[in-house]
Write a structure and sequence with these properties.
With 218 residues, this protein is mainly alpha-helical. It is built from 8 helices and no strands. Bound molecules: fe (ii) ion (2 copies).
Length: 218
């Protein structure tokens, strides 16, 4: 499905810009104009990761899942909730710049936390949400790809935002790991697992799918 390929491509850039933000935030003084640099990161996250990428996930994928009868509670609700949290985290990062507190250790910590949350979010979408969509909504392929085309047509300046992301990554080489953060696949590494969401199988599987699972594995 072209929409899934495209969203995965966005993820590869977003996760690197998040890692680059961590590098910048660990030593903002390395930038000649740190407040301006932070503003460029916030522009990327607000306009590309949120207004373009997250909006496409919500308006096309999550809407199609709801129309297919999947409940709001569980993975759909969690994905939406995390988009809201990520939006608030960018506003909090921007406030460090506005208040002239970029050398405050809290800024580097906020950048690390944001990056860790974003990586976790991306891992879940890549390993749980997108594969589920690929199979559950296989018959909706044409409609979903039309949703992608409409979003692409409506958006403006996307290639400029991708160039901005690439420039930030080149200027501040991204970290590829964070202390205490283990990137992984599936529902188990998700912080909502067991709290608000019981995992995709328990939330989404039908009786038929469970029967099939037991027939295959027992
Ligand atoms: Fe998302
Ligand atoms: Fe995403």
């Amino acid at each position: 499905m072209r929409i899934l390929d495209e969203l995965v491509r966005h993820h590869r850039l977003i996760e690197r810009v998040a890692g680059s933000l961590v590098t910048f935030a660990s030593r903002p003084g390395a930038s000649a104009r740190p407040a301006e640099t932070l503003e460029r990161y916030c522009t990327f996250f607000e306009q590309y990761a949120d207004a373009y990428h997250h909006a496409m996930e919500e308006d096309v994928l999550l809407v199609a899942l709801r129309e297919a009868g999947l409940p709001e509670k569980g993975p759909i609700g969690m994905i939406r909730e995390e988009h809201v949290e990520n939006r608030a985290a960018v506003r909090a990062l921007r406030a460090f710049g506005a208040e002239g507190r970029l050398e405050d250790p809290g800024f580097a910590e906020a950048a690390r936390r944001y990056c860790a949350r974003l990586w976790e979010h991306i891992d879940k979408e890549d390993s749980v949400l997108f594969p589920e969509i690929g199979t559950r909504l296989a018959l909706e392929r044409a409609k979903l790809d039309a949703g992608l085309e409409a979003a692409e047509k409506e958006a403006s300046g996307i290639s400029g935002l991708e160039a901005l992301g690439a420039e930030l990554v080149a200027g501040f080489p991204p970290v590829e790991e964070l202390p205490g953060v283990i990137r992984g696949e599936g529902c188990t590494p998700c912080r909502h697992y067991g709290e608000g969401c019981q995992g995709v199988e328990r939330e989404w599987w039908s009786d038929l799918e469970w029967d099939e699972f037991y027939r295959r594995d027992h």
